[in-house]
Amino acid sequence: MSARKTLVAGNWKMNTTAEEALILAGEIAKTYGSSEQTEILLCPPFVWLGLVSSIITRTNIKLGGQNMYWEEKGAYTGEISPAMLKSTDCEYVILGHSERRRYFGETNDLINKKLFKAIETGLTPIVCLGESLEIRESGKTNDVISRQFEKCFDNFKDFDKVVIAYEPVWAIGTGKTATPEQAQDVHKLLRDLLSQKTDAFDKVRLLYGGSVKPGNAADLIGKDDIDGFLVGGASLKADDFCGIIEATL
Prior knowledge:
By secondary structure, this protein is of the alpha/beta class. The protein has one domain: TIM Barrel (Alpha-Beta Barrel). α1 runs parallel beside α2 (about 50-55) and α9 packs parallel to α10 (about 240-249). The protein is about 40% helix and about 15% strand. It is globular, with a radius of gyration of 17 Å. The chain has helices at about 20-30, 50-55, 80-85, 100-105, 110-120, 135, 140-150, 180-195, 215-220, 240-249, and strands at about 5-10, 40-45, 60-65, 90-95, 125-130, 165, 205-210, 230.
């Protein structure tokens, strides 16, 4: 485990009702609300940000958005601005999640625009990178990850203000998980790419996301360049999410 502070982020995606969101946030806050060793982040659907904020306001748990637009305000029906996220006490925002890329056509160039706006607004972006099963099996993982990295961080300098998440698409919601060795290989690649961009390369937190569970979290977090997790399905069950947190302590 690295000296960088571990971050465990729960991405609830398009799940939970208002009642479920309150209960889930409450259960997590009750168990790990005073956590100092591991940083905990909840990213509920936009409509529940205020509700979840009210539950975690007196805890050490942080709040984040699942996405954002790059404009401050305007005629962009259905979009969420970074200022809106800030006004609900968000400190983080997920950018470029594989589902945004796959279902909504988000490109590396688009993510780059959002990245600069998030930093300008004072949000910490969690920039997601990852490859498909086809790319993994063709042996082109490093090429694709490197290209995504270069495009998403084009002309970017403030690496001390970002988090990067590696999320192999083939391991999201499929029950498959990259082995700790596979995950570490890509995280080491990202660390090497960072070293070519910034002197702060060893301070940037790198998260793994892809069917993380209490049962595999300890082996993953034990790798040198894995600094935490971006958790999907398991973040919807308090026991599972807390089990993942426990594995990092």
